[in-house]
Design a protein that fits this description.
This protein has an eight-stranded mixed beta sheet, covered by helices on one side. The protein has helices at 23-34, 83-92, 152-162, 213-222; strands spanning 13-20, 37-40, 48-53, 56-63, 74-79, 96-104, 108-114, 120-126, 141-148, 165-168, 175-181, 184-191, 203-209, 226-234, 237-243, 249-255. It is α+β, with helices and mostly antiparallel strands. Strand 3 and strand 4 (56-63) form a beta hairpin.
């Protein structure tokens, strides 16, 4: 089995995608920033391309349908072995299934949903396409975090849908919960209280690995993007928060050595 076809345990982030208005301009931005190349398809997803890095599929970019007025944002997909059951559990647990389940050619099946606080995420049931390949190298997604008002209000939802284990950070002023699969932290929920952006609400955010955070931030500006928060130390390593020319925010990080 090839790396890209490897199965991810249920709940593990296995893919990220971005829906934009201008596909060509977005490809130019990320191609120049991360060295991505692009292949078209699956056709069922409309105008859509898969980003490749050194031959490994790392992300997807599609065109936002004209009748949808959604934020331009990176969306993580969490793995499922049974998409129909996952869809039912999402609904029964207070979430909403907005799109799907859909067939994506022979690659697999997907749906897009939102949790009880309104944060949008995807779910992927793999067939031929298991998800991200070449994980951990610069230019690939390495972490996903849910930014929401408080962890307690949504942790029960994600635990019910995906069976996550939970590892809270014990701190008087830091509401943070790591989500684990088979004993390994795979994502996190960060409760920010009134610090939640009013224009975005609860949302998932993706971290992309880079070799040099300062250089990447400089390149973002040169390529027409925006710096939302400059380089700073974090629990993940040196990182910065930036946005592409259409406003999709993401984090770039030079992961700390474990």
């Amino acid at each position: 089995m090839t790396e890209s076809a490897a199965r991810h345990a249920p709940g593990t982030p296995c893919w990220v995608s971005l829906m934009v208005h201008g596909l060509a301009g977005t490809q130019r931005f990320y191609g120049a920033l991360f060295g991505w190349e692009f292949l078209p398809g699956p056709q069922q997803l409309g105008p859509y391309v898969r980003a490749l890095l050194d031959g490994h599929e790392v992300a997807g970019i599609g065109v936002m349908p004209h009748d949808r007025h959604l934020p331009i944002a990176w969306t993580p997909y969490l793995a499922s072995d049974d998409l129909d059951t996952t869809a039912d559990t999402i609904r029964h647990s207070g979430g909403t299934v907005g799109v799907g389940p859909l067939e994506a050619d022979r690659a697999g099946r997907l749906l897009i949903a939102s949790d009880p606080a309104g944060a949008v995420f995807g779910v992927w049931q793999a067939a031929e396409h298991g998800g991200i390949g070449g994980a951990g190298r610069p230019g690939t997604p390495v972490w996903n975090e849910l930014v929401t008002r408080d962890t307690a209000s949504v942790a029960k939802f994600y635990r019910a849908v995906f069976g996550f284990g939970e590892e809270p950070v014990v701190s008087a002023d830091f509401d943070y919960l790591a989500l684990s699969v088979e004993g390994r932290a795979v994502a996190a929920i960060h409760g920010v209280g009134h610090g939640l952006p009013r224009d975005r609400g609860a949302h998932w955010t993706t971290f992309f690995e880079v070799e040099d955070v300062d250089e990447t931030v400089r390149r973002v500006g040169e390529l027409g993007g925006h710096v939302l928060r400059g380089p700073h130390d974090s629990g993940h390593g040196l990182m910065a928060t930036v946005a592409d020319p259409e406003g999709a925010a993401f984090n770039v990080v030079r992961s700390a050595a474990e």
